[in-house]
């Protein structure tokens, strides 16, 4: 299951997330002696990481370069829930013998998640995600509501937030014509490109990276009340006591945001970067 497909209700990073902890000094110094900085990356998470390529791969390289360290990538399959991922890849390690990494990327910056996992620090939001729908303008020139899709094929990942929202929308009015066999939004978007459907729903990063500004298609927020209107943000996680490492990583990410490099990186993949 793709972890980010079920994220909802992300909260802004609160002041003091890195404060009030037992400060074990020297995490960054130890990494400098080692010369490397390891990043846990979700497997099969387009466009962020697929077979060693993607936006989170490039972000890891940029963060490591900012800290004058060599990046080491540790791909892993998502577990049943985010708590398990934080345990396996941040503060303890997996029982199969891999992990933890120094930094986990693509973590929802969410207050309940922070409170449920006191062993980690979640910080440095770097991207705002949202649920969207793309449509073929030749077949659906306007969209005031989802009514325009009644009786028409719409592609959507079956096990995803977008899928659940579309299945339940308007009392299930679109359930019979939804095509839900797709593993993620990039596959749904490719079905739209091939003409197999009139629209595709998924995450903005998935649809934008696949359609890449093609003028034949419009991408808009999914007009469902249950969809998080402002989306949610993702950031990083480290061991709670790694205060100096967290501070250095946040500084590196802030620099990437402030000088426009992060927006440029996302733009090169066809993804609209939105400030967290």
What would you say this structure looks like, in words?
- The protein has 276 residues and is of the alpha/beta class.
- It folds into two domains: 3-129 and 231-268, Periplasmic binding protein-like II (D-Maltodextrin-Binding Protein, domain 2); 131-221, D-Maltodextrin-Binding Protein, domain 2 (3-Layer(aba) Sandwich), CATH 3.40.190.
- Helices cover 31% and strands 23% of the residues.
- It is built from nine helices and ten strands.
- The chain has helices at 27-34, 55-66, 82-91, 111-116, 161-168, 185-193, 204-211, 243-258, 261-268; strands spanning 36-42, 70-76, 103-108, 120-129, 131-136, 154-157, 178-182, 199-203, 217-221, 232-239.
- It has a five-stranded mixed beta sheet, sandwiched between helices. Strands 7-6-8-5-9 form a five-stranded mixed beta sheet, with helices on both faces.
- Strand 6 (154-157), helix 5 and strand 7 (178-182) form a beta-alpha-beta unit.
- Helix 6 runs parallel beside helix 7.
- The protein is elongated, with a radius of gyration of 19 Å.
**Largest sheet features:** 5 strands, mixed
Topology-level CATH name of the largest domain: D-Maltodextrin-Binding Protein, domain 2
Which sequence of strands runs across the widest sheet? Answer: 2-1-3-10-4
The helicity comes to: 25-40%
Structural class: alpha/beta
Report Rg: 19 Å
Mean pLDDT: 91
Separation of termini? Answer: 24 Å
Shape: elongated
Could you give the order of the helices and strands? HEHEHEHEEEHEHEHEEHH
CATH H-level superfamily title of the largest domain = Periplasmic binding protein-like II
Strands, total number: 10
In CATH, what is the class of the largest domain? Alpha Beta
Uncertain spans: 1-24
CATH architecture of the largest domain: 3-Layer(aba) Sandwich
Q: What's the tally of helices?
A: 9
Please state roughly what percent of the residues sit in beta strands, choosing from under 5%, 5-15%, 15-25%, 25-35%, 35-45% or over 45%: 15-25%
